[in-house]
Amino acid sequence: MSQEIALEINKLCVDFKVNNDSFHAVKNVSFKVKKGETLALVGESGSGKSVTALSILQLLPYPTASHPHGSIKVNDEEIIGMKPARLRQVRGNRVSMIFQEPMTSLNPLHNIDKQIREVLLLHRGLKGAAATKCVIELLELVGIPEPIKRLTAYPHELSGGQRQRVMIAMALANEPDLLIADEPTTALDVTIQTQILELLQDLQKTMGMAILLITHDLNIVRHYSNRVCVMTDGEIVETADTAQLFAQPQHLYSQKLLNAEPSGEPIVVNKNADVVLETESLKVWFPIKKGVFARTVDHVKAANDVTISLRQGQTLGVVGESGSGKTTLGLALLRLIKSDGKILFDGQRIDALNNKQMRPLRPDIQVVFQDPFGSLSPRMSVAEIIAEGLTIHAPGSAAEYDQKVIQALTEVGLDPDTRHRYPHEFSGGQRQRIAIARALILKPRLIILDEPTSALDRTVQAQIVTLLRDLQAKYQLSYLFISHDLAVVKALSHDMIVMKAGEVVEQGPAEQLFRNPQHHYTQALLKAAFQ
Amino acid sequence: MTLNPINQRRLQLFKAHKRGYYSLWIFLALFVLTSGAEFISNDKPVAVYYNNSLYVPIFKAYPETVFGGEFETEADYRDEYVADLINANGWMIWPVIRYSYDTINYALEQPAPSPPTTENWLGTDDQARDVMARVIYGFRISVLFGLILTLVSSVIGIAVGALQGFYGGKIDLLGQRFIEIWSSMPQLYLLIILSSIVIPNFWWLLAIMLLFSWMGLVDLVRAEFLRGRNLEYVRAARALGLANRHIMVRHILPNAMVATMTFLPFILTGAITTLTALDFLGFGLPPGSPSLGELVAQGKANLQAPWLGISAFAVLSIMLTLLVFIGEAVRDAFDPRKTLS
Lengths: 531, 341
What we know:
The structure holds 2 protein chains of 2 kinds.
Chain A: E1 5-18, E2 21-34, E3 38-42, H1 49-56, E4 65-66, E5 71-74, E6 77-78, H2 84-90, E7 95-98, H3 102-105, H4 112-124, H5 128-141, H6 147-150, H7 160-172, E8 178-182, H8 190-207, E9 210-215, H9 218-224, E10 227-232, E11 235-241, H10 242-247, H11 252-258, E12 275-290, E13 295-306, E14 309-311, E15 315-319, H12 326-333, E16 340-345, E17 348-349, H13 355-358, E18 365-368, H14 382-393, H15 398-411, H16 428-440, E19 446-450, H17 458-475, E20 478-483, H18 486-492, E21 495-500, E22 503-509, H19 510-515, H20 520-529
Parallel strand pairs in A: 3-9, 3-10, 7-8, 8-9, 15-20, 15-21, 18-19, 19-20
Antiparallel strand pairs in A: 1-2, 1-4, 1-5, 5-6, 10-11, 12-13, 12-14, 12-16, 16-17, 21-22
Chain B: H1 5-16, H2 18-35, H3 37-40, E1 47-50, E2 53-55, H4 80-88, E3 90-93, H5 131-167, H6 169-183, H7 187-197, H8 202-213, H9 218-228, H10 232-239, H11 244-281, H12 292-301, H13 306-333
Antiparallel strand pairs in B: 1-2, 1-3
Helix pairs in contact in B: 1-13, 2-13, 5-6, 5-8, 5-9, 5-11, 5-13, 7-8, 9-11, 10-11, 11-12, 11-13, 12-13
């Protein structure tokens, strides 16, 4: 391995101007990446890791952003203050970047051949047959099956993993010295994550480039990086070899980050508690209509033949990758979408009730959604959001509402004095607590938790899991916990079902499933998550 | 009243848009002034003090006999004979301009239309009526017409758009097709035909124009509701058991209001322009009404009297420019990407 240094950042600062005020996003960050090495930049959202990465290619919104001082050297060439023409030669040529979201980083209107060709034309001047040959080679390199047939494919015809492979092919087209991968696998399912990261590792071995890997996922860091920089609040607090960091984290923040894995066991429960929720071969089929008279020719089976039962005070984990029908199942149980098959709540059939008949039952079945930014109305204060359910189900005076809101906020660990603020003033974790408070204030018996921790940082995730567990013990709540994150599911669930493409592939007690998975899909999921 | 932070920011952005902010104040000043047009420009005094008692001719018609005259009809205060009678035993307070929109100046020294003088600031039109007075009343009627039309058509448009977007499916399908057919009718011809069937007064014109103007906002609001009904907080509200009506008003409507507010000033200018166009063609307000469109028509018919055309042009362009500036400021205020600098 050559010891040549591909990237050297020295005391880099990034400021953002916000209403005549400057906000220091990155403060005195220094690190080096050698050729053939993978350096991981780890931190939670808002720690400044993406800003650091973007400033390497000078892709920040200048002049709102500025670099008061510091230097960025790629192959001993200073980037800050470089002429735009020269900068364009560096971008995509010596330094390439892969972004988080493969759906939006490819142009949906051009086929993949055209998009890769553009890079080749810009930087290497390749045209015609030579370019086609090169494109096919690249697609082969990143493991796209039958590359010749795939040339004319548009991004929407490819799966998420394949799109990310195409992005990698584009990034590697000019054999860069440095590849910046900004959360390259966050938007992908776990089984595909592993494939992509292994691909990157193989390519690094053959091409000998340096990789700057930006991620919040410690599992990825542990397996795919040589050295790690831990970032928080715009500063690098620790730089160490990967093995050393995981064995002996020095800085307090690194320790906190490493210990933030959701842990612990689900609470001990009465195995013979009453059954709260039951379904019998629940189906959610969306018709596919064709022809002039819109005849139903087929169905998309979003959830098919799901039979579950959930006891008082217990948690049923619903696990699956995106598109497996777990959210659909949650919405069907809430009776927010149409479904077939029996749903029993408390022994009472609710699948035939209309909206009005359903209303008295609403307080008992509550929901917390994935996106804490989308699930709170931005135009209502926190107190209004939380008290909204009360106005329907337990009308009372303003003072009573206020009292209950204060109680609910205290319950979820928020300062009740903040209740007159608006959602945008809160962080993701705090918003999720508000969403839980909104569900809790109606004293429900069942809460459907639809990926409540997915949008949150690891340390915050662990706090939310602990909160949920405490509330369950206190109020004997039943949870239907939908997640793709097995570590979180493991920490909460008593029973578990694994879904794939709308079908339940395996179900049973969680402990048993984690110890001895039967179905090969479950095994693959577990391997990817806890390798 | 405390504004939430989003509205505070909008207010700040609106104020930061200086041109629009001042336009709003100028427009409001003009609107308030012309709202009391009777007090500024009238052929009756505001108050008359005669024989130790106070009369208010602006609000009440007094026969000439009250002031010692001979006729039982309403006093003509502009008549020197009546004026002398009153001034002999009291006094009169006149508005700044002693002409109402339909007062004919019989004392012109040359044939109407006569050029501006100290008596008729903007001259007189071809029926010897004071142009200044007509412009003041015309401004008021145009703005009022525009405001009422905008308000009513917005309410209908928002309601229809909300229902279509929220319920979707058949309601949406039928609604959209109806709007497509309805909006493809030749509006102006229909207005002309209708106004030849009924005698068009202010309210008739409003009703006829409303038949078509409500569609402007439907598509916008419908699109917002189609998007809004699947937002997570709307789903959460549904899971709380909120009735559809409440979900629409409390959770989705505020989103749709952004687009609506942005469009309102432009709908207003559109309404005013249409009314002026109809008046110009002679299918608008009944003959004799103080209308800017009619003044434009007179200007066209009397090119030798440029004060007619110029006055009408100046008033219309100032009014529309102010409204467009206000509209731009409102649009900026509601633009989430705009930052205070």
